[in-house]
Request: fold
Amino acid sequence: MADDAVRLRIALAQVNPTVGDIEGNASLISAWIAKAQEAGAQLVVFPEQTVTGYPAEDLWLKPHFLDAARGAVDAIAAGVQAIVALVGFPERDAAAYNSVAALGDGQVRAVYRKVLLPNYGVFDERRYFEPGDTPALIEVAGARVGLTICEDIWYPGPPASVEALAGASLIVNPSASPYHRGRGTYRERMVQDRARETGSAFAVCNLVGGQDELVFDGHSVVVSEQGQTLARAAQFVEQLVLCDLELAANPTTSAPRADEPRVDAGPAGATAPVLARFEAPAPSGEVEPQLADPLEPVAEVYEALKLGLRDYVRKNGFERVLVAVSGGIDSALVTLIAADALGPERVSGVVMPSPHSSHETQADARTIVRAVGADLIEIPIEPAMHSYEELLATSGDGAASQPGGPGPGTESAREVETGGAGTELAAENIQARIRGNLMMALSNRFGWLVLTTGNKSEMSVGYATLYGDMAGGFAVIKDVPKTLVYELVRYRNSLSDAELVPESVLERAPSAELRPGQLDQDSLPPYEMLDRILAAYVEEDRGRDEIVSDGLPAEVVDEVIAMVDRSEYKRRQAPPGIRITPRAFGRDRRLPITNRFRG
Reply:
């Protein structure tokens, strides 16, 4: 180690808090501070807003919620000695701020306020917080450490650049950066870029866990000033990551006088306040580098879905889940994820055959449920179908109420929105609604959570039944395109010695089996083409002409765009589901139902 360098052992506490559980989160934080201290860390960094969980949404608008959070921070601080802890919390002052508290010597020694507040996609921070306006440093064991929070480092420039010029050899970043496909790798490369630009090492501690529609992937990193990753946490699990850093010593390490100015002049006249100086015992020995390998793309999505479901069930207090298993690929995937996330003993697969259900699909449904070790419930729906037919026979031919056009109120299930209606369509919808009714009845009887099985391709174009297969509490694969559904099932099959999902399910043409001979391709373009159009229109916000210029048939593009736009009213009534793409329905993509713009 160079004569003018100091050694600093940093710990990244990649934890999974629960939104609103301030008392439980405070206990979690204190326990992990103790773990870090036991490991010889001098500085431990927690994710953004760990005290309240992220995002706390309109809880952040409640003054008593903010007061409770500050009380928890003070209580945590009282137990912090011989280590420095950086803990994220919502600060209530003249306004509310997204802040991080520097804890040490039994007290809150400093508070930094986030400068750049994201207000796009899934983020609404401008609704809740005012931005800070001051880059800031602390000093730990002779090393200057710049403070930032999440979005503060996503772009070149202040506050990180100012802190580096003011002498920060390390910049820390408590983060709550939500997952979508490939996000962790992109985030790590961004951190490497910031390190090379500023000439400072970076340590990013990202949140892990599921919160309603969002999943946080962890993937916390420590990166050297040259942009080399020195430590990397595993994805989708809690982990304490330790890293020994060799950092430049500060030009001044003595304690500040009472009359010392808060603003320190750094090289090139850059300024940033040193908010507090901490002593911390030097660590003994060395820690082994922790460099978890990132998951492969399909495995990454599968783990995200598992964590999102597990945390939704755990944090909301459900004991068991129900899945309507049809023998098709979508319900097969949801069953696999549920069994892997919760354990098969907490999963019940419900098979509800109708006269239109083939022997092959029903046999496959039973095989899947038994293969994963879940409980099997069978309820034939033919008697209920006959009861509905008798009841509806008294309604006449409906001549007085013909459909008025292809507007969003024209409900069609497993038939794409066309503005049409009729006895056959009503009969198909009734089958789906009988099944939905039975699933919700089981949920009411036992208190179990119903998992819906619709994928993103179907949800995009309205190929689903309101109050039927859309009925449930959580939509596990709501943001998973149909083509990716197949990849995920093949991936999961490859991990098992025994085949969990029969090859017949993967090879059979998709069908809702609501009428004889029905196939998805009768109502939809081939899924490979449909998913290309949906990715361009929904996720990339590209217009009709631009999509057609990619070589896709104009008439198909027009049809798909019309179906997507007309189905907004359905999606508003769907249960929440896990976000795994850059643009998911719900928090991400918000369009009016009453809307005449096309393309």
Notes: Confidence is low (pLDDT under 50) at residues 252-268, 399-420. The longest strand covers residues 5-14. The CA atoms of residues 327 and 365 lie 4 Å apart.
